[in-house]
Amino acid sequence: MRDELQFLKGNENLSRLLSHYASTGAADRETWQDRVMELEGADSQGLVKLHGILLAYSWIEQNTGSSSFLQPGVVRQCYRITPAGLKALKTVVVKNIEGADGESAAA
């Protein structure tokens, strides 16, 4: 898991996307969130890859098969952060706060 966390820590767009799903789901973790369609610093193809990475590491889960709200350019209620995603984000944030000491301990 350390490699995944290093990847999350080293990829600002990935961590911002995961942070978005964490913050929008903070009030109710069971509520499905709309898909982020634009992210500063990532083109649409890059955003697809970022979502794929989050899904591959089980940091978000997908609900695209049962979305009942159809609207062009929007994918409603299709993702939510998982407990593993929250844990990864929390771990990376704590390591960032620890600074160089946390990095040297992980190496």
Brief description of this entry?
The chain has 107 residues and is mainly alpha-helical. The chain is built from five helices and four strands; from the N terminus they run H-H-H-E-E-E-E-H-H.
- Strands, total number: 4
Shape: globular
Q: What is the CA-atom radius of gyration, in angstroms?
A: 15 Å
Uncertain segments = 102-107
DSSP strand content: 5-15%
For the largest beta-sheet, the strand count, sense and barrel status come to: 2 strands, antiparallel
Q: Pairing-aware structural class of the strands and helices?
A: mainly alpha
Arithmetic mean pLDDT? 86
Number of helices: 5
Distance between the termini: 13 Å
**Strand arrangement in the largest pleated sheet:** 1-4
- Oligomer description: single chain
Question: Share of helix among residues?
Answer: 40-55%
Please write the string of helix (H) and strand (E) elements.
Answer: HHHEEEEHH
Helix/strand layout:
Elements lengths: L1 H9 L1 H13 L19 H13 L3 E3 L7 E2 L2 E2 L3 E3 L1 H16 L1 H7 L1
Antiparallel strand pairs: 1-4, 2-3
Helix pairs in contact: 1-4, 2-3, 4-5
Any overview of this molecule?
A hairpin with a 2-residue loop joins strand 2 and strand 3 (74-75). The radius of gyration is 15 Å and the shape is globular. The strands form 2 sheets. It has a two-stranded antiparallel ribbon. Strands 2-3 form a two-stranded antiparallel ribbon. The chain contains 5 helices and 4 strands. Helices cover 54% and strands 9% of the residues. The protein has helices at residues 2-10, 12-24, 44-56, 83-98, 100-106; strands spanning 60-62, 70-71, 74-75, 79-81. The chain starts with a helix and ends with a helix. The longest helix is centred in the C-terminal third of the chain and has 16 residues, at 83-98. Helix 4 (83-98) packs across helix 5 (100-106). It has 107 residues and is mainly alpha-helical. The model is unreliable at 102-107 (pLDDT under 50).
